[in-house]
Design the sequence.
């Protein structure tokens, strides 16, 4: 065989080897270049950190790492609000609120996502969304929180009342006063505490009226005591007066006089 023929037979094998090597070399070259770092490494890193939020042993570390990324993590966290895993959704909500507008989070753009998550089938996600709505404090968020006072879930209603207190919105005063008439002493206590934080004088008379009530039948004493304490603390916050003597009163006559 002539040398020319021998060289021609080896070329295909050499070409194949180069093609196989290029499958590994090209991604490696892209990976170490600034362009590869920006378009390949960083997005993959964000996705991995976000998925680590689902694991209890490492989610705190992942949250800290994502928080340190600042604005860079925001679009990835917003995208993960639709993730299948509830821990990822809940963790992403918390991180977005923690980052806040100073880190590029547009609360108005985030609001539709939170409205959707407030109806999430997972309790953890719903409660985190509720907490986030309280941080946003926009009129639309307050309106949604007021609707949550009628939610079928008892704990969700109580959480909504507490969250409305954190908003400080005067719009919530009337719905919270109405919540004082509910049967659930837990919700009534949360409403009283929220009214105390908002500080509206409209709530004084309704709160005083609740102190004149007798405990309903089959009411657990400690729950009724907590409710009355929340009412007293709410009145103290609004009026700026101490009602410690009311707490120490042992008869209805003494309480009526106070």
Sequence:
């Amino acid at each position: 065989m002539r040398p020319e023929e021998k060289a021609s037979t080896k070329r295909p094998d050499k070409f194949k080897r180069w093609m196989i090597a290029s499958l590994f070399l090209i991604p490696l070259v892209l990976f170490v270049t600034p362009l590869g770092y920006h378009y390949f490494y960083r997005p993959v890193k964000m996705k991995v950190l976000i998925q680590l939020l689902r694991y209890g042993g490492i989610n705190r570390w992942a949250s800290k790492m994502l928080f340190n990324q600042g604005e860079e993590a925001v679009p990835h966290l917003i995208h993960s609000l639709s993730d299948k895993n509830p821990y990822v959704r809940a963790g992403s909500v918390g991180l977005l609120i923690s980052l806040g507008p100073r880190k590029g989070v547009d609360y108005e753009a985030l609001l539709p996502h939170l409205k959707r998550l407030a109806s999430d089938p997972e309790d953890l996600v719903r409660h985190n969304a509720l907490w986030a709505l309280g941080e946003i404090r926009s009129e639309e968020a307050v309106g949604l929180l007021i609707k949550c006072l009628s939610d079928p879930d008892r704990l969700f209603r109580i959480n909504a009342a507490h969250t409305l207190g954190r908003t400080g919105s005067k719009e919530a005063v009337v719905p919270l006063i109405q919540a004082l008439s509910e049967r659930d002493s837990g919700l009534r206590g949360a409403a009283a505490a929220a009214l105390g934080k908002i500080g509206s004088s409209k709530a004084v008379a309704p709160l005083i009226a609740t102190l004149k009530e007798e405990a309903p039948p089959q009411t657990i004493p400690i729950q009724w005591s907590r409710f009355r304490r929340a009412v007293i603390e709410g009145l103290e916050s609004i009026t700026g007066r101490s009602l410690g003597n009311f707490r120490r009163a042992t008869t209805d006559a003494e309480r009526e006089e106070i």
